[in-house]
Every structure is written in C-alpha cells, then in structure tokens.
C-alpha cells in the first residue's frame, strides 16, 4: 500500500515500520542507514502533529488580553493532541479579505513553517472558504480555524449516539460551503446522459448533494432523539431539576461527582464533558435531579449550539441553574459574561441561578501575566489595577449580586458542605412551591429560612 504524506511532509502508514529509525535521523536517510544495521529498532508511536497559532486582534486590544486568548487557543490545541510550537500576532483594523493576515506576516509564517517542518496552522477566528483555500495554497500545510478545532474536540469527546450525531451534523454543516477546491478531482465530470456528451453533473455538485442528504438524514435522526429525550424529561415530573452550567474546564464535572457520588469523567482539559449526565440526589429528604452539561466557550460555533439542541434542553428545562466559575482564571469576569450571553441565546437566562466560584485554592491575586516570545506590536494596559485579594472579591460579589454567591474548591473539598446546604435550601423552596405535598420530613420552616 502506498504511503500517504500530509501537507507538512510527514509520512503516515499503517505499517509498524516507522519512516525514521530511532537514531534520530529521519526520513529516507534514516531508513537507508537502518538497513545496514541488523539490530536497528523502530519507533512505532504515533507522532503528534505540530502547529503554530495565529491571531489578528484589534489594535486597541491589550497585550494581556491577546495572550489570554492565545493561551485558550493553545489549550484547545493541546486538548486536540497538537503540540504548539510558536505564536504569531498581527494587529489590524480588520483581517485581510484574501488571506486573513497581511502579505508580510504570511511570508513570515510560511518561512517558519517550512524551516521547522510544522504540519498545521491554527487561526483564532473563523476563516471564510476563500481564505481557507488561499492559505492552504500559500502555506501548503493543513489550515485549521477555531470552529473546526472545537468541532474536532467535540468529535473525540462524544460518546452517546445523540452526541455523535450532533457532532457529525456540525461537521457536515462546516464542510458544505468549503467543498470547492477541497479535492483535486472536483473539476472532472460524471454522467452526461445516454450519449455521455452533455455537461453532466460535476463531482462538486455530486459531493454537495451527498453532504446535503447526510445533513437531512442527521436532522431527522436528531428529531427522533429529541422526542426520546423529551419523553425521558416528562417522566421526571414531580421533582426539581438543577443544571450545572459554566465556561468549559471550570470544574462542573468534579462538583457533579462530589454532590452525586458518581463517576462522571473529569479531566483538566477543555470540553471533558460533551454528553449531558443526569443523577438523582437527595439532601435532607429533599430529592432533585442534577445535570452536568457541556461547557461554553468564547466564540462557540453557532453550528454546535444548533446541533446540541437536545443536550441544551437540559438547561432550558431546568428549574435552577448553578453557574460555576473558575475564579483562578485571570479572565473569569469575561467568562461569566460569555456564559450569560450564551444562556440568553438559548433562552435560559431568566431562570433562578446560584453563582459558585470554584478553584479558590488556585487563586493568586498578585499573579502577573508572563510575556510569550513571538509577540510584536505590544499594546500593554499599564493602567490595569492589580488583581484584588480573594477576601476582597468575596465581599464585592456578595454585596453587589442579589443571587446567592459561594466560594469553594471542589478539588480540595473546601466549603462543599456549604454548597450542599445552599442547594438544599433553594431546591426545597422550589419543591415546596410546586409540589407542597411531596417534601416528606423536610420542614416548612427550613424551606423558608
């Protein structure tokens, strides 16, 4: 079987014989040297892809914010199994309509990619189909934008049939407008009537039709899954439903495991949870259902929001939301705003909400952002105040917010009993309002505290 090489020059094969021997001499030279060595060994491990990151922020954006966004993009790349080698930043009033970055920056990226043998370039924004084609033609490596990277991570995380269908639908919707020029054979024609002389149907038309048919099939399948999920949720009548919401990687699954004593997958990576998980919990004879839902993120692809309708219905139909925030993250306030905006988009922003700040054990009020190599045109915010202490934040948020606020550490189990007590009070109050005859031994006095 012929070996296929990707755009970055790496070779992949199903054979256990690696393209390069373990004497650190890669490629054809390494194979020739290995032939002369009967004791030569081969590294059969799958090589991780390497990438550079590219961001085009507004000229007024502070450097600390730009770095924060690139840190998140690097975390996404790491979650997808990619090693990030370098970061490129170009400040423009607006991205170049043809190649997103300017001509000089594109030449700089190309020189670095060729010199280091990089296999992928990842952009922190969505690229148009024409920009994608122009960049691939110029850089001759794989080009990935933010949406495709997130969709790829979702594809690796999805376990249930519903989640897999949702991700596949998002993939096809992303692919459809980008079919032109995707394969070299698309200029050929297929068909042409009985005499084979007509213009026929070009392969691009055929491929588009195949993708559209697949999208229609997946939408029908998801409608069936929605009906099943709706039936399951209807069968949960008579019990209060609570949903954990928040930015990705804030510790929702860890909290879920603590409260429900279950074993939901939790990992220090983005989008560890894609499938929603529901557990029945009872505190002080007050039963309720707790849902762990998919995390939100800045610039979450609209296709994913649309595709994950049935999963997000767990949030829409919840009686109480627990908004979990990673207080150790320097941009946690922006993350709160992103989650609130996404809740508005899915029409769930008007629900009762508890705000829970997690990871207080990792909070550092004097942490300064370290500068990364590869930045140019620095635009530092010299007037930015020092981060407040944890005590100052507690006083501030407890004073200015009407909703209850709690500060915890799920990892270190700090203030978890307080979280249980807070949940119990609010769930019991909702339960008493809706189902006054089903609270068992829980007293009305406790509910009304």
UniProtKB/TrEMBL annotation:
InterPro entries: G_HFLX_dom (IPR030394), GTP-bd (IPR006073), GTP-bd_M (IPR032305), GTPase_HflX (IPR016496), GTPase_HflX_N (IPR025121), GTPase_HflX_N_sf (IPR042108), P-loop_NTPase (IPR027417), Small_GTP-bd (IPR005225). CDD domains: HflX. Its cofactor is Mg(2+). Residues 240-431 form the Hflx-type G domain. PANTHER family: GTP-BINDING PROTEIN 6-RELATED (PTHR10229:SF0), GTP-BINDING PROTEIN HFLX (PTHR10229). This is GTPase HflX. GTP binds at residues 246-253, 271-275, 292-295, 358-361, 409-411. Residues 1-28 are annotated as: Disordered. GO terms for cellular component: cytoplasm. Monomer. Associates with the 50S ribosomal subunit. It comes from the Bacteria. It is found in: Cytoplasm. GTPase that associates with the 50S ribosomal subunit and may have a role during protein synthesis or ribosome biogenesis. Belongs to the TRAFAC class OBG-HflX-like GTPase superfamily. HflX GTPase family. The keyword Metal-binding applies. Keywords: Cytoplasm, GTP-binding, Magnesium, Metal-binding, Nucleotide-binding. GO terms for molecular function: GTP binding; GTPase activity; metal ion binding; ribosome binding.
């Amino acid at each position: 079987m012929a070996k296929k090489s990707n755009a970055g020059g790496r070779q992949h094969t199903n054979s256990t014989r690696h393209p390069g021997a373990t004497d650190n001499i890669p490629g054809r030279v390494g194979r020739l040297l290995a032939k002369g060595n009967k004791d030569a060994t081969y590294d059969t491990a799958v090589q991780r892809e390497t990438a550079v990151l590219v961001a085009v922020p507004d000229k007024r954006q502070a450097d600390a914010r730009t770095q924060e966004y690139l840190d998140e993009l690097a975390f996404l790349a790491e979650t997808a199994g990619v090693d990030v080698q370098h970061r490129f930043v170009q400040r423009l009033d607006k991205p170049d309509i043809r190649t997103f970055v300017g001509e000089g920056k594109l030449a700089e990226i190309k020189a670095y990619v060729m010199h280091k043998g990089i296999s992928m370039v990842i952009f922190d924004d969505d690229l148009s189909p024409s920009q994608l084609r122009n960049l691939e033609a110029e850089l001759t490596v794989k080009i990935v934008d933010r949406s495709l990277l997130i969709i790829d991570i979702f594809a690796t995380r999805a376990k249930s049939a519903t989640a897999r269908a949702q991700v596949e639908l998002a993939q096809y919707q992303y692919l459809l407008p980008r079919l032109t020029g995707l394969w070299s054979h698309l200029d050929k024609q297929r068909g042409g009537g009985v005499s084979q002389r007509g213009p026929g149907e070009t392969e691009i038309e055929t491929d588009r039709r195949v993708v559209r048919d697949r999208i229609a099939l997946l939408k029908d399948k998801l409608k069936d899954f929605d009906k099943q999920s709706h039936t399951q949720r209807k069968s949960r009548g008579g019990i209060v439903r609570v949903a954990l919401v928040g930015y990705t990687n804030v510790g929702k699954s860890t909290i879920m495991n603590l409260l429900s004593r279950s074993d939901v997958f939790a990992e220090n990576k983005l989008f560890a949870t894609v499938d929603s998980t529901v557990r029945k919990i009872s505190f002080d004879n007050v039963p309720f259902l707790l849902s762990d839902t998919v995390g939100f993120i800045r610039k979450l692809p609209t296709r994913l929001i649309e595709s994950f309708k049935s999963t997000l219905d767990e949030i829409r139909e919840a009686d109480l939301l627990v908004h979990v925030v990673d207080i150790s993250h320097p941009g946690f306030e922006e993350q709160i705003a992103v989650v609130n905006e996404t809740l508005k988009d899915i029409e769930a922003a008007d629900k009762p909400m508890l705000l829970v700040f997690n990871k207080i054990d990792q909070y550092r009020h004097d942490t300064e952002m370290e500068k990364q190599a590869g930045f140019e045109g620095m635009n530092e915010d010299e007037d930015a105040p020092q981060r407040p202490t944890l005590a100052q934040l507690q006083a501030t948020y407890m004073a200015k917010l009407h909703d209850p606020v709690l500060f915890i550490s799920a990892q270190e189990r700090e203030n978890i009993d307080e979280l249980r007590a807070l949940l119990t009070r609010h769930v019991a109050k909702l339960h008493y309002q809706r189902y006054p005859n089903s609270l068992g031994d829980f007293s009305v006095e406790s509910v009304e505290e």
